[in-house]
Amino acid sequence: MSEAVKVRVFTIPGMRLVSLANARTHWAEKARIAKHQRGSAGVWTVKALTASPPVKYRGPWTIVICRIGPRKLDSDNLAISAKHVRDGVADALGIDDGDETKVKWLYDQRTPKEAGTTQRYEVRVAFYPGSLPSASQLTPPAEPAPTPASKAKSLARTATRKTSGKGLRSGEVGK
After folding, report:
1. Which pTM does this prediction carry?
2. Which of 45, 56, 142 minimizes the C-alpha distance to 93?
3. Of the candidates 101, 59, 110, 66, which has an alpha carbon nearest to the alpha carbon of residue 86?
4. Mean pLDDT per segment of 10 residues, for the chain of length 175 residues?
5. Sign of the C-alpha dihedral computed for residues 81, 84, 90 and 92 taken in this order
6. Which residues lie below 8 Å from residue 16, measured CB to CB, with a gap of 6+?
7. Interhelix angle for 27-50 vs 149-164, to 10°?
8. SS (HEC) of the chain
9. Do 122 and 174 form a contact (C-beta atoms < 8 A)?
């Protein structure tokens, strides 16, 4: 990867990724969570890629979705928990998330301490232009300018209102 092409990273503060594969919840609740996660991921992706300077690179991408939470999931539940974030990012890029010629998806997870954050739950997404030349680049780098907690909560509430129409249940948005 050349030095001229930069990695773009963004964090969705307070988003809690849980595996819904074995969850015993009502289908409407699952649908509400999916709609919120997909919509929020799309909004944050557009903000990240249109921020100054805007990204003009059109792909292929290697995208790493990093779940940050107090406990780790096993690998299959990690991928399932990030499904709606993946769909939202793909929607924002205008691509099919299954098209391996345009995007490669990788998953990672950290505890808040390992990620160097004070948020209990969040999702960090990193866009790498092209293919990753080495496994050492899998870890999404820290964001260059962290958002203050109060502003992050405000942005999360705004994204929630725009995507779901209803408030989130306790624990889905950081407190």
Report:
1. 0.73
2. 45
3. 66
4. 66 91 89 95 92 76 94 93 96 90 92 92 91 56 51 49 43 40
5. negative
6. 69, 121, 171, 172
7. 120
8. CCCCCCCEEEEEECCCCCCCCCCCCCHHHHHHHHHHHHHHHHHHHHHHHHCCCCCCCCCCEEEEEEEECCCCCCHHHHHHHCHHHHHHHHHHHCCCCCCCCCEEEEEEEECHHHHCCCCCCEEEEEEEECCCCCHHHCCCCCCCCCCCHHHHHHHHHHHHHHHHCCCCCCCCCCC
9. yes
Report, in angstroms and rounded to the nearest whole number, the Rg of the chain calculated over CA atoms.
15
- The number of residues making up the chain comes to 175
Predicted pLDDT of residue 171: 43
Name the residue with tokens 């003009």. 56
Residue extents of the structural domains in the chain = 8-164
Cα–Cα distance between 127 and 48 in angstroms, integer?
Answer: 10
